[in-house]
Amino acid sequence: MLSFKDIRQGLLVALWFIFLTFPLLVIKINPIENSVNWRWLNMVYVGSFSFLIYLITRMVMARKLERQKKIKLGLVKEKVAWSIKLFSQPRLYLPLLAAVAVFFLLFPGLFSTYQVNIMITALMYVVLGLGLNIVVGVAGLLDLGYVAFYAVGAYTYALLNMHFGLGFWTVLPIGGVLGAIFGILLGIPVLRLRGDYLAIVTLGFGEIIRLILENWSSFSHGPSGISNISRPGFFGIELSLEMSIVYMYYLTVLMVLFTIFVVNRLQDSRIGRAWFALKEDEIACQAMGIDKMKTKLTAFSLGATWAGMAGVMFAAKTTFINPASFTFLESAIILCIVVLGGMGSIVGVIVGALVLILMPEYLRAFSDYRMLAFGAILVVMMIFRPQGIIATLRRTYTVKGDLE
Amino acid sequence: MQPILNVQNLTMDFGGIRALDHLSLQVHSGEIVALIGPNGAGKTTFFNCITGIYKPTKGDLLLTPPGKKTKKLNGLKPNKVTEQGLARTFQNIRLFPNMTVLENVMIGRHCRTRSKIFGAIFRPPGTRREEEEIIQDSLDILKKIGLAQLANEYAKNLPYGAQRRLEIARALATNPFMLLLDEPAAGMNPQETLELDELITTIRDDGLAILLIEHDMKLVMNISDSIFVVDYGKKIAEGSPEEIAKNPAVIKAYLGEEIEHA
Questions:
Q1: Do A305 and A215 belong together in one domain?
Q2: How far is Cα B151 from Cα A250, in angstroms, rounded to an integer?
Q3: ipTM for the predicted complex
């Protein structure tokens, strides 16, 4: 299975990792005693770990190759991916779906308020991820400033609530509409650009919005932010803090369901097809009679609508917002959710959001290594599963009548 | 008879390079017209000018759809040109590789259907009916082209010849009255070329006019009603296949000039 060459290569890899981590993990300078503390044991750990991991990946890869050879020769049938198997058979996915539904329904009763709060945050990222999925995953427009529309929504609620006392339910659609308007305003000049250029311009736009919020104090109260934003009303009844968190939780679940419903229908429609085709080949798309600009603009502004609504929910949940919540890192995380989960795949994005947001919360014990683990996961995923956790599948149509 | 496509003195400059030089060409209803010429003669540029990818420097592009008024195509965007009833295929295949065969054709129906975001989300009866029609029409086209049994296959998994045919199917889905084919036989084996020959003739018999760029002389001579020859952006000959085969200017462009020995 493993040749001598593999082992030699493994030793080289181990050596390289030792070299890379040497200054950080082995040398420790004690400035008080002016001495150097050599931690040789760490070197042994790093070396043996990387050697082992290398050998394991080699073995996995070798097995994969052998399998592919056998498939080519017709000895074994191609294995259907588990995700495809799961979703093609109602017998398998219906009980799973029911279990998930019951879990989310009973969640606030089973867990503490702290846990519920974390779950609300995760579900909001599900909404954001699904919104960005329209733009990046389906229409293929790389948007690095998505958080700007999120900020627009959040500040819409905060300001309207502060100045005019408007409630959550009134502002939720307003936030969505304002998000869409900003999406169109930015989209018209910017969507002529493609790929990397579009990414950079949207990145700039995200920063501009944040800087405006930070510096225009008379409008947005600057870095100190806006506090005392009212929570969502429940038919005029005052709720206790705990009850209002539970209420917020169910609202977010509803929002997620609504988003899934809409995104699913959009993807499986005339417009959804056009978005996907636009991602595949712009010139062919135009030659087929699709208005490039209009189609891109709908995708962009619909994505922004969802960011706007999620922003309103965010402001209502935290009751305090400031520009620090809308940094580039947020955009990056939402993009990671989409890419890691599986571009264009609704289930993938949901799983991606839950993993990426919940994992750091529950791994607080290892918080020192959080970013390291985050980076490692991204690298490993992109190498071994570039299509994301759950890859998209194009819809197939059952064909009536004969085919000749 | 009035030509359905009338190109007059079409000129296209790229900076200082004149890619097309006062090129005129007519296509009549129900005709197969071939555009031939050596590599780099400007054939694909000509197509790109007609279909709106390039904006011509000078000249007129007049389109007369059957039973409608003549319209100028200059400066129209590619999607508007397609809406007028002019569909094209590409020299280097430009399918949507990660979509199914059926979906590829369904995209072609896009410009003939109307449902919007509201319809997509709420699916009123009108949208549902339209969606069913799209599927049925697309399937009918696939049956005609002979790709229906591959409807749910990803386009990228098709063999080369089938991909070329799918491009034609997709173009037909836009309901054109004229089809522009850019080297449809490129890279095909003789059997596939023969099938293509039949396919193009059937499409013509359905009442479509066809303008094609092609290097396969056997195919061109077989099916064309008239041939235009371009070299260095200029038209050097036009006429029936027999006339072209004997034309000295054409022979010179393709084979070079014989040097007189002293």
A1: yes
A2: 42
A3: 0.90
pLDDT at A298 over 90: yes
DSSP line for A330-383: HHHHHHHHHHHH-TT-HHHHHHHHHHHHHHHHHTGGGGGGHHHHHHHHHHHHHH
Residues A322 and A266 reside in one and the same domain: yes
What pLDDT is attached to residue A155? 95
**A78, A270, A392: which to substitute to probe chain B, counting the most B Cβ within 10 Å?**
A270
CB-closest option in A274, A284, A397 to B94:
A284
β-sheet with B226-231: strand ranges across: B86-88, B178-182, B209-213, B32-36, B226-231, B234-239
For residue A76, the model assigns a pLDDT of 67
pLDDT at B226: 93
Multiple choice CATH, B1-85+176-262, 3.40.50.300, 3.40.50.1240, 1.10.510.10, 1.10.1040.10:
3.40.50.300
Query: For residue B192, what are its two tokens?
Result: 């596939």
| Contact assignment for B120 to A266 by CB distance below 8 Å | yes
Contact A277, A121 (CB under 8 A): no
Mutate to test the interface with A, among B80, B107, B135, B172 (most CBs of A within 10 A): B107
Report which residue type is found at B4. I
Candidates A292, A298, A394; nearest CB to B100: A394
Using a CB-CB cut-off of 8 Å, the residues of chain A touching B83 are 289
Per-residue pLDDT tens for B8-43? 999 999 988 899 999 999 999 999 999 998 888 899
pLDDT digits (tens, 9 = 90+) for A325-336: 999 989 999 999
Instruction: Select the residue of B88, B127, B130 nearest A287 (Cβ to Cβ).
Output: B88
Distance of alpha carbon B82 from alpha carbon B108, whole angstroms? 10
**Residue A332 maps to which CATH number?**
1.10.3470
SS3 for A282? helix
Task: Check whether A2 has a pLDDT greater than 60.
Answer: yes
d(CA A379, CA A339): 12
Q: What are phi and psi of A67, to 5 degrees?
A: -60, -45
Residue B71 in contact with residue B62, Cβ under 8 Å? Answer: yes
**Whole domain around residue A290: which residue ranges?**
111-384
Instruction: Give the number of other Cβ atoms within 10 Å of residue A242's Cβ.
Output: 12
